[in-house]
Amino acid sequence: ARRCSQRWRLPGWVLHVVVFFPPRFRYKVMKNWGVIGGVAAALAAGMYVLWGPITERKRRRKGLVPGLLNLGNTCFMNSLLQGLSSCPSFIKWLEEFTAQYKTDQQQPTEHRYLSLTLLHLLRALSCQEATEDDVLDASCLLEVLRMYRWQISSFEEQDAHELFHVLTSSLEDERDRQPRVTHLFDVHSLEQPEITQKQISCRTRGSLPPVSNHWKSQHPFHGRLTSNMVCKHCEHQSPVRYDTFDSLSLSIPAAVWGRPMTLDHCLHHFISSESVKDVVCDNCTKIQAEGILNGQSIENQRTTFVKQLKLGKLPQCLCIHLQRLSWSNQGTPLKRHEHVQFNEFLIMDIYKYHIPVHKSSQNELNQKNSEETTPGTKEGITVKPSDAEPPSGTKPLFMNGACSSSFLMSSGTFPLAAFPECSSPVYLYRLMAVVVHHGDMHSGHFVTYRRSPPSPKNPVSVSSQWLWISDDTVRKASLQEVLSSSAYLLFYERVHSRVQHQSLELRAEE
After folding, report:
1. pLDDT tens digit string along 378-415?
2. What secondary structure letter does DSSP report for 59?
3. What pTM, to 2 d.p., does this model score?
4. Active site residue ranges
5. 303: nearest Cα among 214, 236, 254, 390
6. Cβ neighbourhood burial of 498 (10 Å; 0-12, 13-18, 19+)
7. What is the tens place of the pLDDT at every residue in 126-173?
Protein backbone atom coordinates (compact mmCIF):
# COMPACT_ATOMS: atom_id res chain seq x y z
CA ALA A 1 0.00 0.00 0.00
CA ARG A 2 1.10 3.52 -0.70
CA ARG A 3 0.98 6.17 2.01
CA CYS A 4 -0.32 9.65 1.20
CA SER A 5 -0.33 12.29 3.88
CA GLN A 6 -1.59 15.86 4.02
CA ARG A 7 -0.80 18.40 6.70
CA TRP A 8 -2.86 21.40 7.85
CA ARG A 9 -1.67 24.12 10.23
CA LEU A 10 -4.13 25.78 12.62
CA PRO A 11 -3.37 28.03 15.65
CA GLY A 12 -2.34 25.73 18.45
CA TRP A 13 -2.93 22.59 16.36
CA VAL A 14 -0.73 20.42 14.12
CA LEU A 15 -2.86 17.78 12.44
CA HIS A 16 -1.61 14.83 10.37
CA VAL A 17 -4.05 12.92 8.18
CA VAL A 18 -2.73 9.59 6.90
CA VAL A 19 -4.64 7.71 4.19
CA PHE A 20 -3.79 4.20 2.79
CA PHE A 21 -4.76 3.26 -0.78
CA PRO A 22 -4.24 0.05 -2.83
CA PRO A 23 -2.15 0.54 -6.03
CA ARG A 24 -5.12 0.00 -8.37
CA PHE A 25 -7.01 2.91 -6.77
CA ARG A 26 -4.09 5.30 -7.05
CA TYR A 27 -5.39 7.04 -10.15
CA LYS A 28 -8.89 7.48 -8.72
CA VAL A 29 -7.52 8.79 -5.43
CA MET A 30 -5.33 11.35 -7.17
CA LYS A 31 -8.31 12.39 -9.26
CA ASN A 32 -10.50 12.96 -6.13
CA TRP A 33 -7.72 14.33 -3.97
CA GLY A 34 -9.46 17.71 -3.63
CA VAL A 35 -12.57 16.11 -2.12
CA ILE A 36 -10.52 14.10 0.37
CA GLY A 37 -8.54 17.19 1.35
CA GLY A 38 -11.74 19.17 1.92
CA VAL A 39 -13.15 16.48 4.21
CA ALA A 40 -9.95 16.36 6.23
CA ALA A 41 -9.86 20.16 6.53
CA ALA A 42 -13.46 20.19 7.74
CA LEU A 43 -12.59 17.54 10.33
CA ALA A 44 -9.63 19.61 11.55
CA ALA A 45 -11.73 22.77 11.76
CA GLY A 46 -14.40 20.93 13.75
CA MET A 47 -11.86 19.67 16.24
CA TYR A 48 -10.48 23.22 16.60
CA VAL A 49 -13.94 24.66 17.27
CA LEU A 50 -14.82 21.97 19.82
CA TRP A 51 -11.61 21.88 21.82
CA GLY A 52 -9.93 25.15 20.88
CA PRO A 53 -6.21 25.83 20.72
CA ILE A 54 -3.77 24.29 23.11
CA THR A 55 -2.09 27.60 23.92
CA GLU A 56 -3.24 29.32 27.09
CA ARG A 57 -5.32 32.52 26.92
CA LYS A 58 -3.33 35.68 27.38
CA ARG A 59 -3.98 37.71 30.46
CA ARG A 60 -5.02 41.34 30.23
CA ARG A 61 -2.26 43.91 30.45
CA LYS A 62 -2.26 46.28 33.41
CA GLY A 63 -4.10 49.56 32.84
CA LEU A 64 -6.32 48.19 30.07
CA VAL A 65 -9.89 46.93 30.02
CA PRO A 66 -11.25 43.69 28.56
CA GLY A 67 -12.14 43.57 24.88
CA LEU A 68 -15.26 42.02 23.40
CA LEU A 69 -15.48 39.09 21.03
CA ASN A 70 -16.85 39.89 17.57
CA LEU A 71 -19.64 37.37 16.98
CA GLY A 72 -19.90 38.10 13.26
CA ASN A 73 -20.73 41.77 12.72
CA THR A 74 -21.24 42.84 16.34
CA CYS A 75 -18.80 45.74 16.42
CA PHE A 76 -21.83 48.05 16.79
CA MET A 77 -22.75 46.32 20.07
CA ASN A 78 -19.17 46.08 21.33
CA SER A 79 -18.48 49.78 20.76
CA LEU A 80 -21.70 50.83 22.50
CA LEU A 81 -21.04 48.62 25.53
CA GLN A 82 -17.55 50.07 25.91
CA GLY A 83 -19.02 53.58 25.77
CA LEU A 84 -21.72 52.82 28.36
CA SER A 85 -19.21 51.17 30.70
CA SER A 86 -17.32 54.47 30.93
CA CYS A 87 -20.37 56.22 32.49
CA PRO A 88 -20.27 55.60 36.28
CA SER A 89 -23.69 57.20 36.85
CA PHE A 90 -25.34 54.70 34.52
CA ILE A 91 -23.70 51.74 36.25
CA LYS A 92 -24.72 53.13 39.65
CA TRP A 93 -28.31 53.50 38.47
CA LEU A 94 -28.33 49.90 37.25
CA GLU A 95 -27.05 48.74 40.64
CA GLU A 96 -29.87 50.58 42.42
CA PHE A 97 -32.41 49.45 39.85
CA THR A 98 -31.50 45.75 40.17
CA ALA A 99 -31.30 45.74 43.99
CA GLN A 100 -34.76 44.16 44.24
CA TYR A 101 -33.74 41.14 42.15
CA LYS A 102 -31.28 39.98 44.81
CA THR A 103 -34.18 38.72 46.93
CA ASP A 104 -35.54 36.58 44.10
CA GLN A 105 -34.25 33.04 44.67
CA GLN A 106 -36.26 31.23 41.99
CA GLN A 107 -34.12 30.96 38.85
CA PRO A 108 -31.03 32.74 37.54
CA THR A 109 -32.28 36.29 37.09
CA GLU A 110 -29.53 37.45 34.73
CA HIS A 111 -31.15 35.41 31.94
CA ARG A 112 -34.52 37.11 32.43
CA TYR A 113 -33.79 40.78 33.00
CA LEU A 114 -31.95 43.12 30.69
CA SER A 115 -30.84 45.33 33.56
CA LEU A 116 -28.94 42.52 35.30
CA THR A 117 -27.33 41.27 32.11
CA LEU A 118 -26.26 44.78 31.18
CA LEU A 119 -24.98 45.48 34.68
CA HIS A 120 -22.75 42.37 34.72
CA LEU A 121 -21.25 43.26 31.35
CA LEU A 122 -20.62 46.91 32.19
CA ARG A 123 -19.10 46.06 35.57
CA ALA A 124 -16.73 43.60 33.90
CA LEU A 125 -15.77 46.14 31.23
CA SER A 126 -15.13 48.79 33.88
CA CYS A 127 -12.96 46.37 35.91
CA GLN A 128 -15.41 46.33 38.83
CA GLU A 129 -15.73 42.54 38.70
CA ALA A 130 -12.82 40.17 39.15
CA THR A 131 -11.86 38.76 35.74
CA GLU A 132 -8.48 38.12 34.19
CA ASP A 133 -9.80 37.41 30.70
CA ASP A 134 -8.71 39.86 28.05
CA VAL A 135 -11.74 39.10 25.84
CA LEU A 136 -15.37 38.78 26.98
CA ASP A 137 -18.41 37.36 25.21
CA ALA A 138 -21.51 39.62 25.03
CA SER A 139 -23.81 37.13 23.29
CA CYS A 140 -25.92 37.01 26.47
CA LEU A 141 -27.10 40.55 25.69
CA LEU A 142 -28.52 39.50 22.32
CA GLU A 143 -30.22 36.52 23.97
CA VAL A 144 -31.97 38.60 26.60
CA LEU A 145 -33.02 41.18 23.98
CA ARG A 146 -34.78 38.39 22.09
CA MET A 147 -36.90 37.88 25.20
CA TYR A 148 -37.87 41.55 24.83
CA ARG A 149 -38.94 40.80 21.22
CA TRP A 150 -35.88 42.39 19.63
CA GLN A 151 -34.52 40.12 16.90
CA ILE A 152 -30.97 41.36 16.33
CA SER A 153 -28.77 39.19 14.15
CA SER A 154 -25.07 39.02 14.97
CA PHE A 155 -24.20 38.51 11.28
CA GLU A 156 -25.93 41.64 9.92
CA GLU A 157 -24.50 45.14 10.13
CA GLN A 158 -26.44 47.29 12.59
CA ASP A 159 -26.25 50.84 13.93
CA ALA A 160 -24.84 51.60 17.39
CA HIS A 161 -27.23 54.54 17.91
CA GLU A 162 -30.27 52.37 17.13
CA LEU A 163 -29.07 49.77 19.62
CA PHE A 164 -28.71 52.53 22.23
CA HIS A 165 -32.41 53.35 21.86
CA VAL A 166 -33.28 49.65 21.96
CA LEU A 167 -31.52 49.35 25.33
CA THR A 168 -33.05 52.48 26.87
CA SER A 169 -36.58 51.67 25.68
CA SER A 170 -36.26 48.07 26.91
CA LEU A 171 -35.09 49.30 30.31
CA GLU A 172 -38.13 51.56 30.48
CA ASP A 173 -40.37 48.61 29.60
CA GLU A 174 -38.76 46.59 32.37
CA ARG A 175 -39.38 49.43 34.81
CA ASP A 176 -43.03 49.69 33.77
CA ARG A 177 -43.53 45.99 34.50
CA GLN A 178 -42.89 46.61 38.19
CA PRO A 179 -44.65 44.46 40.80
CA ARG A 180 -47.55 46.42 42.21
CA VAL A 181 -48.90 46.44 45.74
CA THR A 182 -52.67 46.62 45.42
CA HIS A 183 -54.94 47.91 48.16
CA LEU A 184 -57.84 45.68 49.20
CA PHE A 185 -60.33 48.45 48.45
CA ASP A 186 -58.93 48.97 44.94
CA VAL A 187 -61.64 46.87 43.33
CA HIS A 188 -60.88 48.10 39.82
CA SER A 189 -57.29 46.85 39.92
CA LEU A 190 -58.27 43.56 41.53
CA GLU A 191 -60.82 42.88 38.78
CA GLN A 192 -58.36 43.43 35.94
CA PRO A 193 -58.16 40.14 33.99
CA GLU A 194 -54.61 40.73 32.74
CA ILE A 195 -53.20 40.89 36.28
CA THR A 196 -52.30 37.51 37.71
CA GLN A 197 -52.21 36.55 41.37
CA LYS A 198 -48.42 36.59 41.40
CA GLN A 199 -48.44 40.26 40.40
CA ILE A 200 -50.79 41.25 43.23
CA SER A 201 -49.74 41.29 46.87
CA CYS A 202 -52.03 42.63 49.56
CA ARG A 203 -51.72 43.28 53.28
CA THR A 204 -54.63 43.09 55.65
CA ARG A 205 -52.83 44.72 58.59
CA GLY A 206 -50.49 47.63 58.82
CA SER A 207 -49.56 50.29 56.31
CA LEU A 208 -48.64 49.52 52.73
CA PRO A 209 -44.89 49.33 52.01
CA PRO A 210 -43.51 52.33 50.12
CA VAL A 211 -42.59 51.95 46.49
CA SER A 212 -38.84 51.70 45.99
CA ASN A 213 -37.09 54.81 44.74
CA HIS A 214 -35.42 53.00 41.86
CA TRP A 215 -38.82 52.34 40.30
CA LYS A 216 -39.63 56.04 40.34
CA SER A 217 -36.33 57.32 38.97
CA GLN A 218 -35.59 57.50 35.27
CA HIS A 219 -32.33 56.27 33.83
CA PRO A 220 -29.58 58.93 33.76
CA PHE A 221 -29.86 59.43 29.97
CA HIS A 222 -33.46 60.62 30.29
CA GLY A 223 -34.04 64.29 29.49
CA ARG A 224 -36.81 66.62 28.33
CA LEU A 225 -37.11 69.00 25.38
CA THR A 226 -39.28 72.12 25.41
CA SER A 227 -41.13 73.29 22.33
CA ASN A 228 -42.11 76.96 22.42
CA MET A 229 -44.41 78.49 19.75
CA VAL A 230 -45.17 82.23 19.44
CA CYS A 231 -47.60 83.83 16.98
CA LYS A 232 -45.94 86.37 14.70
CA HIS A 233 -49.12 88.41 14.38
CA CYS A 234 -50.26 88.88 18.00
CA GLU A 235 -47.13 87.59 19.79
CA HIS A 236 -49.25 85.19 21.78
CA GLN A 237 -47.28 82.29 23.24
CA SER A 238 -48.81 78.84 23.21
CA PRO A 239 -48.36 76.54 26.23
CA VAL A 240 -44.89 75.02 26.38
CA ARG A 241 -44.79 71.41 25.23
CA TYR A 242 -42.44 68.89 26.82
CA ASP A 243 -41.03 65.86 25.01
CA THR A 244 -38.66 63.23 26.36
CA PHE A 245 -35.33 62.25 24.82
CA ASP A 246 -32.59 59.71 25.51
CA SER A 247 -30.05 61.23 23.13
CA LEU A 248 -29.68 64.47 21.22
CA SER A 249 -29.57 63.70 17.52
CA LEU A 250 -27.85 66.69 15.90
CA SER A 251 -27.69 67.34 12.19
CA ILE A 252 -24.46 68.81 10.83
CA PRO A 253 -25.15 72.19 9.16
CA ALA A 254 -23.57 73.22 5.89
CA ALA A 255 -19.92 74.07 6.35
CA VAL A 256 -18.62 77.59 5.73
CA TRP A 257 -15.39 77.82 3.77
CA GLY A 258 -12.45 78.55 6.02
CA ARG A 259 -14.36 77.97 9.27
CA PRO A 260 -14.15 74.69 11.21
CA MET A 261 -17.34 72.91 12.16
CA THR A 262 -17.82 72.78 15.92
CA LEU A 263 -20.23 71.06 18.28
CA ASP A 264 -21.65 74.47 19.16
CA HIS A 265 -22.65 74.97 15.53
CA CYS A 266 -24.62 71.72 15.64
CA LEU A 267 -26.27 72.62 18.96
CA HIS A 268 -27.21 76.12 17.79
CA HIS A 269 -28.63 74.61 14.59
CA PHE A 270 -30.67 72.19 16.71
CA ILE A 271 -32.34 74.92 18.82
CA SER A 272 -32.60 77.52 16.03
CA SER A 273 -36.07 78.90 15.49
CA GLU A 274 -38.16 77.95 12.49
CA SER A 275 -41.38 79.33 10.99
CA VAL A 276 -44.48 77.15 10.93
CA LYS A 277 -47.15 78.40 8.56
CA ASP A 278 -50.93 77.94 8.54
CA VAL A 279 -51.38 77.38 12.29
CA VAL A 280 -54.64 78.21 14.06
CA CYS A 281 -54.12 81.01 16.61
CA ASP A 282 -56.78 81.05 19.31
CA ASN A 283 -55.78 84.52 20.46
CA CYS A 284 -56.09 86.03 16.97
CA THR A 285 -59.46 84.33 16.59
CA LYS A 286 -60.59 85.75 19.94
CA ILE A 287 -59.47 89.27 19.00
CA GLN A 288 -61.27 89.01 15.68
CA ALA A 289 -64.46 87.83 17.40
CA GLU A 290 -64.45 90.75 19.84
CA GLY A 291 -64.55 93.18 16.94
CA ILE A 292 -67.81 91.76 15.61
CA LEU A 293 -70.85 93.27 17.33
CA ASN A 294 -73.58 90.98 15.98
CA GLY A 295 -71.96 87.91 17.46
CA GLN A 296 -71.52 86.29 14.10
CA SER A 297 -69.36 83.19 14.01
CA ILE A 298 -66.02 83.62 12.33
CA GLU A 299 -63.52 81.17 11.01
CA ASN A 300 -60.40 80.26 12.93
CA GLN A 301 -57.60 82.67 12.20
CA ARG A 302 -54.52 80.95 10.75
CA THR A 303 -51.17 82.69 11.09
CA THR A 304 -47.47 81.91 11.10
CA PHE A 305 -45.83 80.76 14.32
CA VAL A 306 -42.18 80.79 15.35
CA LYS A 307 -41.13 77.49 16.91
CA GLN A 308 -38.01 76.99 19.00
CA LEU A 309 -36.62 73.98 20.83
CA LYS A 310 -34.64 74.12 24.05
CA LEU A 311 -33.57 71.68 26.73
CA GLY A 312 -36.06 71.65 29.57
CA LYS A 313 -34.31 68.98 31.63
CA LEU A 314 -30.69 68.07 31.07
CA PRO A 315 -29.78 64.48 32.02
CA GLN A 316 -26.94 63.29 34.20
CA CYS A 317 -25.46 61.35 31.26
CA LEU A 318 -25.70 63.11 27.91
CA CYS A 319 -25.51 61.11 24.67
CA ILE A 320 -25.02 63.21 21.54
CA HIS A 321 -25.56 61.62 18.12
CA LEU A 322 -24.05 63.39 15.12
CA GLN A 323 -26.14 62.58 12.07
CA ARG A 324 -23.73 61.64 9.30
CA LEU A 325 -26.36 60.40 6.88
CA SER A 326 -27.12 62.60 3.87
CA TRP A 327 -28.82 62.07 0.54
CA SER A 328 -27.56 62.86 -2.92
CA ASN A 329 -29.62 64.49 -5.67
CA GLN A 330 -30.25 61.00 -7.06
CA GLY A 331 -31.65 59.80 -3.73
CA THR A 332 -28.73 57.58 -2.73
CA PRO A 333 -27.49 57.63 0.88
CA LEU A 334 -24.14 59.25 1.52
CA LYS A 335 -21.99 59.54 4.62
CA ARG A 336 -20.61 62.87 5.79
CA HIS A 337 -16.97 62.49 6.78
CA GLU A 338 -16.19 66.05 7.92
CA HIS A 339 -14.66 66.53 11.34
CA VAL A 340 -16.81 68.18 14.02
CA GLN A 341 -14.67 69.76 16.73
CA PHE A 342 -15.61 68.92 20.31
CA ASN A 343 -13.96 69.45 23.68
CA GLU A 344 -13.22 67.42 26.76
CA PHE A 345 -15.64 69.68 28.65
CA LEU A 346 -19.05 70.86 27.48
CA ILE A 347 -21.10 73.79 28.83
CA MET A 348 -24.85 73.51 28.21
CA ASP A 349 -26.18 76.50 30.18
CA ILE A 350 -27.02 78.56 27.10
CA TYR A 351 -29.18 75.75 25.69
CA LYS A 352 -31.23 75.30 28.86
CA TYR A 353 -34.86 76.46 28.88
CA HIS A 354 -35.73 78.94 31.63
CA ILE A 355 -39.30 79.63 32.70
CA PRO A 356 -40.17 83.19 31.67
CA VAL A 357 -40.77 85.62 34.53
CA HIS A 358 -43.54 88.24 34.33
CA LYS A 359 -42.41 91.84 34.07
CA SER A 360 -43.95 92.83 37.41
CA SER A 361 -42.27 89.94 39.22
CA GLN A 362 -39.00 90.65 37.45
CA ASN A 363 -39.11 94.34 38.47
CA GLU A 364 -39.77 93.40 42.10
CA LEU A 365 -36.93 90.91 41.99
CA ASN A 366 -34.54 93.45 40.47
CA GLN A 367 -35.54 96.07 43.05
CA LYS A 368 -34.98 93.59 45.87
CA ASN A 369 -31.60 92.60 44.51
CA SER A 370 -30.57 96.23 44.11
CA GLU A 371 -31.40 96.89 47.78
CA GLU A 372 -29.42 93.86 48.97
CA THR A 373 -26.44 94.29 46.65
CA THR A 374 -24.34 97.28 45.71
CA PRO A 375 -22.19 97.96 42.63
CA GLY A 376 -19.17 95.71 42.65
CA THR A 377 -20.97 93.04 44.67
CA LYS A 378 -22.72 89.86 43.68
CA GLU A 379 -25.40 88.45 46.00
CA GLY A 380 -23.99 90.57 48.79
CA ILE A 381 -20.42 89.30 48.30
CA THR A 382 -17.68 91.53 46.94
CA VAL A 383 -16.28 90.25 43.67
CA LYS A 384 -13.46 91.26 41.39
CA PRO A 385 -14.18 93.17 38.18
CA SER A 386 -13.12 90.14 36.16
CA ASP A 387 -15.79 88.00 37.88
CA ALA A 388 -18.63 90.41 37.16
CA GLU A 389 -21.17 89.78 34.47
CA PRO A 390 -19.95 90.67 30.98
CA PRO A 391 -21.60 93.62 29.26
CA SER A 392 -24.49 92.89 26.96
CA GLY A 393 -23.62 92.46 23.32
CA THR A 394 -20.21 90.93 23.90
CA LYS A 395 -19.59 87.57 22.31
CA PRO A 396 -18.77 84.73 24.68
CA LEU A 397 -15.14 83.71 24.65
CA PHE A 398 -15.99 80.05 25.15
CA MET A 399 -17.46 77.90 22.42
CA ASN A 400 -17.87 74.17 22.77
CA GLY A 401 -15.43 72.71 20.30
CA ALA A 402 -13.55 75.94 19.48
CA CYS A 403 -11.05 76.45 22.29
CA SER A 404 -7.36 76.86 21.89
CA SER A 405 -5.19 73.81 21.42
CA SER A 406 -3.38 74.50 24.69
CA PHE A 407 -6.68 74.21 26.54
CA LEU A 408 -7.58 71.02 24.71
CA MET A 409 -4.30 69.42 25.66
CA SER A 410 -4.48 70.47 29.30
CA SER A 411 -5.29 67.68 31.70
CA GLY A 412 -6.86 67.81 35.11
CA THR A 413 -9.50 70.29 36.22
CA PHE A 414 -11.47 72.63 34.01
CA PRO A 415 -9.82 76.09 33.88
CA LEU A 416 -12.99 78.11 34.41
CA ALA A 417 -11.05 81.25 35.32
CA ALA A 418 -10.10 81.61 31.66
CA PHE A 419 -13.77 82.23 30.77
CA PRO A 420 -15.36 84.95 32.94
CA GLU A 421 -18.87 84.48 31.58
CA CYS A 422 -18.67 80.73 32.35
CA SER A 423 -16.94 81.07 35.71
CA SER A 424 -19.70 79.13 37.45
CA PRO A 425 -21.56 76.96 34.92
CA VAL A 426 -24.44 74.93 36.30
CA TYR A 427 -24.57 72.40 33.47
CA LEU A 428 -20.96 71.36 32.94
CA TYR A 429 -20.22 67.99 31.32
CA ARG A 430 -17.06 65.92 31.01
CA LEU A 431 -16.33 63.72 28.00
CA MET A 432 -16.33 60.01 28.89
CA ALA A 433 -16.38 58.11 25.58
CA VAL A 434 -16.50 58.60 21.79
CA VAL A 435 -17.85 56.07 19.29
CA VAL A 436 -16.40 56.39 15.77
CA HIS A 437 -17.62 54.76 12.55
CA HIS A 438 -15.13 53.96 9.79
CA GLY A 439 -16.45 53.20 6.32
CA ASP A 440 -19.44 54.26 4.25
CA MET A 441 -23.21 53.86 4.54
CA HIS A 442 -23.16 50.27 3.27
CA SER A 443 -20.34 48.77 5.32
CA GLY A 444 -17.87 49.80 7.98
CA HIS A 445 -16.57 49.26 11.48
CA PHE A 446 -17.25 50.83 14.89
CA VAL A 447 -14.47 51.63 17.38
CA THR A 448 -14.55 53.37 20.75
CA TYR A 449 -12.40 55.84 22.61
CA ARG A 450 -13.09 55.70 26.34
CA ARG A 451 -11.56 56.67 29.63
CA SER A 452 -9.68 54.07 31.59
CA PRO A 453 -11.50 53.05 34.80
CA PRO A 454 -10.32 54.76 37.99
CA SER A 455 -7.96 52.98 40.33
CA PRO A 456 -9.52 50.82 43.08
CA LYS A 457 -7.82 53.00 45.69
CA ASN A 458 -9.79 56.05 44.53
CA PRO A 459 -12.93 54.84 42.72
CA VAL A 460 -14.54 58.30 42.73
CA SER A 461 -11.75 59.90 40.70
CA VAL A 462 -11.80 60.29 36.93
CA SER A 463 -8.90 58.86 34.96
CA SER A 464 -7.08 61.02 32.42
CA GLN A 465 -5.88 57.96 30.49
CA TRP A 466 -7.75 57.22 27.27
CA LEU A 467 -8.11 53.86 25.53
CA TRP A 468 -8.76 52.91 21.90
CA ILE A 469 -10.88 49.75 21.58
CA SER A 470 -11.77 47.80 18.45
CA ASP A 471 -13.64 44.62 19.49
CA ASP A 472 -10.97 42.53 21.25
CA THR A 473 -8.06 44.93 20.56
CA VAL A 474 -7.29 47.46 23.29
CA ARG A 475 -4.48 50.01 23.41
CA LYS A 476 -3.75 53.33 25.08
CA ALA A 477 -4.55 56.60 23.30
CA SER A 478 -3.93 60.30 23.88
CA LEU A 479 -6.52 63.02 24.39
CA GLN A 480 -5.37 64.69 21.17
CA GLU A 481 -6.13 61.50 19.23
CA VAL A 482 -9.59 61.37 20.80
CA LEU A 483 -10.44 65.00 19.98
CA SER A 484 -9.16 64.54 16.40
CA SER A 485 -11.54 61.66 15.67
CA SER A 486 -14.68 61.91 13.54
CA ALA A 487 -17.21 61.31 16.30
CA TYR A 488 -20.48 59.50 15.71
CA LEU A 489 -21.63 59.19 19.35
CA LEU A 490 -20.41 61.36 22.24
CA PHE A 491 -20.95 60.32 25.85
CA TYR A 492 -20.72 63.11 28.42
CA GLU A 493 -21.35 62.99 32.16
CA ARG A 494 -22.37 65.96 34.24
CA VAL A 495 -19.86 67.43 36.69
CA HIS A 496 -21.37 68.73 39.92
CA SER A 497 -19.78 71.37 42.09
CA ARG A 498 -19.53 71.05 45.86
CA VAL A 499 -22.62 73.19 46.38
CA GLN A 500 -24.60 71.08 43.92
CA HIS A 501 -23.40 67.89 45.64
CA GLN A 502 -24.67 69.22 48.98
CA SER A 503 -28.07 70.09 47.53
CA LEU A 504 -28.34 66.64 45.98
CA GLU A 505 -27.55 65.02 49.31
CA LEU A 506 -30.22 67.15 51.02
CA ARG A 507 -32.76 66.08 48.39
CA ALA A 508 -31.85 62.43 48.92
CA GLU A 509 -32.32 62.81 52.69
CA GLU A 510 -35.70 64.50 52.19
Report:
1. 333 333 333 333 333 434 434 566 544 334 333 333 44
2. B
3. 0.71
4. 75, 445
5. 236
6. exposed
7. 988 777 678 999 999 999 998 888 888 777 788 999 999 999 999 998
